[in-house]
Amino acid sequence: MQTPPILVSVCALLLLLGAAPERPEAGGRYQITPAEGGAFLRLDTQTGTVSVCQRKEGRWGCEAVPDDRRALQGEISRLESENKELQGTIRRLEELLALPDPGSPDRRAGRSGPRFQVPSEEEVDRAMDYVERMMRKFRDRIRSFKNSDGSL
After folding, report:
1. Domain extent listing, the chain
2. What per-residue confidence (pLDDT) applies to 77?
3. Higher model confidence: residue 103 or residue 143?
4. Kind plus residue range of the DSSP H or E element containing 30
5. Which residues on neighbouring strands pair with residue 62, listed in sequence order?
6. Count of alpha carbons within 13 Å of 9, Cβ hemisphere only?
7. Is 35 helix (H, G, I), strand (E, B) or coil?
8. Distance between CA atoms of 130 and 137, rounded to whole angstroms?
9. Which of 37, 35, 33, 10 lies closest to 22 in space, CA to CA?
10. Which of 54-63, 88-97, 128-137 has the highest mean pLDDT?
11. Rounded CA gap, 144 and 9, in Å?
12. Is the pLDDT of residue 89 over 80?
């Protein structure tokens, strides 16, 4: 004797509802909630995934609902990794320049190697005097070309 399809559907529904009541018991994994069109939403309380369970072609099946949270979590993880990498690069550059870390004692004080120093006023004045002399010579050369050729 063949079991009527309606009886199979009712049994499956009772199994779904009986296995996972609307309020999850302590340690219960799934929470089932009625949805539109005779379907049910199944929440996996351990992973947070949601599935839509419905009857198709005489059989019950569940399909996972697309979850943007996973994509966002992937992007957050990528950005956290990039942030750590950039912080490491900043630390390496600071050590290369031997600049003190604000708010903490200079841990590079005992480090040997070249150190960055701001030029003194005297050194800046000497450099500016040198540039000024170069500009005068350049201007004088232009004038001499102008006078000899007359075309400029």
Report:
1. 5-66, 67-120
2. 92
3. 143
4. strand 30-34
5. 53
6. 12
7. coil
8. 11
9. 33
10. 128-137
11. 104
12. yes
CA dist 92 and 111 (Å) reads 13
Read off the pTM. 0.32
* Long-range CB pairs of 74-78, under 8 A, 24+ apart, other chains included: none
E strands, 1-152, are 30-34, 40-44, 50-56, 59-64
Rounded CA-CA distance 50/29 in Å is 12
Output the six-digit token pair for 7. 């009886």
Q: CA-to-CA distance for 128 and 31, rounded, in angstroms?
A: 77
The neighbour count for residue 91, using CB atoms within 10 Å, is: 11
- The residue that leads in pLDDT, 16 or 75, is 75
For residue 45, give the amino acid letter: T
- Tracing tokens 């490491």 back to the chain, one arrives at 88
Query: Going by C-beta distance under 8 Å and a sequence separation of 6 or more, which residues neighbour residue 46?
Result: 29
Please give the Cα distance from 93 to 101 (Å, whole number).
11
Residue 95, pLDDT above cutoff 70: yes
- Tokens 């949805």 — which residue? 35
Can you tell me the mean pLDDT for 47-59? 88
